[in-house]
Design brief:
Length: about 180
């Protein structure tokens, strides 16, 4: 499964972020905001909330939104551009942990960079049987949106076509390094 740079705009909005009570976009917090406790918000609702300055301000204080994307993404890119797409996920994680570029980052930025290359829990985007796009790594996608970055590294399954705006993050036999 190679990494691709996916436009943040093409990533799905959250669908069930439950683990973080400090994130205003976590499911229970959105339900509380609308006073709709059995309801699950859709993509249009999240699109509106991400445009809301109050939600953006609150999200910047979220404990899951730590680290500078402007610092972490170039460090991640430095690892991926030197790693063929056929490299095993655990090997990519090990290369990231031993990368002098990532090691030189402060704790928050290093943790963010390593979370983006985590072999067990990278950001993944996939289609369900009904064609809906979902993701693993919802808090990281949320943080990327709040930070205003344009692209995020997403681990993509071989044989599944990524969105049109996606670009390979790793060299493949069919793409230049």
């Amino acid at each position: 499964m190679p990494f691709y740079w996916i436009p943040v705009a093409d990533a799905p909005f959250p669908h069930a972020m439950r683990r973080n009570h400090t994130c205003p976009f976590a499911l229970e917090n959105v339900r509380r905001h609308f006073r709709e406790f059995g309801w699950t918000p859709g993509q249009d609702t999240y699109r509106e909330l991400y445009a809301n300055p109050d939600f953006q301000r609150r999200a910047r204080d979220c404990s899951a939104h730590q680290g500078s994307w402007l610092v972490a993404l170039p460090a991640v890119e430095s690892v991926l551009t030197c790693t063929p797409a056929s490299t095993a996920p655990d090997e990519i994680g090990l290369l990231a942990k031993n990368s002098p570029v990532i090691s030189a980052l402060n704790n928050s930025d290093r943790n963010l960079a390593l979370s983006l290359l985590d072999s067990l829990d990278p950001i993944r985007i996939f289609r369900t049987h009904d064609g809906t796009w979902l993701s693993n790594g919802q808090h990281r996608i949320c943080a990327a949106r709040i930070a205003g970055v344009s692209h995020i590294p997403v681990w993509w399954k071989f044989g599944v076509r990524p969105p049109d705006g996606a670009k390979p993050a790793q060299p493949t036999p069919l793409s230049p390094g």
